[in-house]
Amino acid sequence: MSNHSREISVTDYHTAGEPFRIVESGFPEIVGQIVLDKRASAIGNQELEKVRLLLVNEPRGHADMYGGVILESNDSGADFGVLFWHGDGYSTACGHGTIALGAWAVDTGRVTANPDGETTVTIDVPSGRVQAIVRQEAGVTTQISFKNIFSHSIAENVSVELASGKTVTVDVGYGGANYASLNVEQLGLTVEPQHLDELIKVGREIKWTLNESPESNSQEDPRLNGIYGTNIYEDLAASASQLHQRNVTIYADGRVDRSPCGSGTATRIAQLNHAGKLTVAMTLIHDSIIG
Questions:
Q1: Is residue 206 within 8 Å of residue 158, measured between CB atoms?
Q2: Helix, strand, coil tally for the chain in percent (to 5)
Q3: Residue 147: what are its φ and ψ, rounded to 5°?
Q4: Residue 44: pLDDT band by 50, 70, 90 thresholds?
Q5: Which of 96, 160, 182, 251, by CA, is between 20 and 30 Å from 287?
């Protein structure tokens, strides 16, 4: 039996409950001109699959592990590129990962930081170009936000018949990936850990029911087609200045985002604004299922 060894250098970050493993070196070469091309070539590549599975599965990872491979940028306008990966493959967007990458770029000196102000880290991802804005005080990172690609509503009140025979309606939107959004009231549940098994079941079912529907077709690029996940949300409070919701995002094939989901949050903002429920003067407080 042959014994092949490979040294892979990674750094793990934590963003609002969700892990993000950054592969700095050692990942096999991914062919393609831009990051979206590289994602297309990575899907189904057996050499890459072996390494992705090694990084994501036990004992080095777990069912909801997430990460990204550092790549060259599409052009000189970005600091670097990244191909996102998870337990089922490669995603087109990842907001919590973008936040982690902003911290990593500043921490490692990949991008020179302003020690008493804001530093913008520009990253090419499969869905386009995003930015992480890192704020520091006396050289210590105190806050990170991110500027996403253009997010928008795709369709409203789309009917989905569940295996139980119950019909629910969802809104579909885009925030770097396509998401279906479901008000948990329709299930007679709340977005809390004790209901997670049922929320995973329904979220996964909605994703696959709509995955090849007209509502899942991308307005940007056909390689972005498909429903990536289901945002199941709960209204907690509302006022003239803000909305407060709690959500759980069931992504890929039944995976759970422990964070509020960055690209999913961008999608929710676009959907709420489109529906006239969230103006540019208002704030959305978006909790995850764990807080």
A1: no
A2: 25, 40, 35
A3: -105, 115
A4: very high
A5: 160
Could you tell me the pTM of the whole model? Answer: 0.96
pLDDT tens-digit profile of 57-108?
999 999 999 999 999 999 999 999 999 999 999 999 999 999 999 999 999 9
Catalytic, out of 48, 70, 78, 94: 94
In the structure encoding, which two tokens stand for residue 46, read together?
A: 């057996």
Cβ atoms of 252 and 89 closer than 8 Å: yes
Q: Which domains does the chain have, with CATH numbers?
A: 9-147 (3.10.310.10), 152-287 (3.10.310.10)
- SS3 of residue 253 by DSSP: coil
Say whether 94 is catalytic. Answer: yes
Q: Using CA atoms, how far apart are residues 129 and 131, in angstroms rounded to an integer?
A: 7
Q: In sequence order, what are the beta bridge partners of 250?
A: 230, 256
Task: Identify the residue with better confidence: 11 or 4.
Answer: 11
Q: Is 188 left (phi over 0), alpha (psi -120 to 50) or beta?
A: left
Per-residue pLDDT, 3: 61
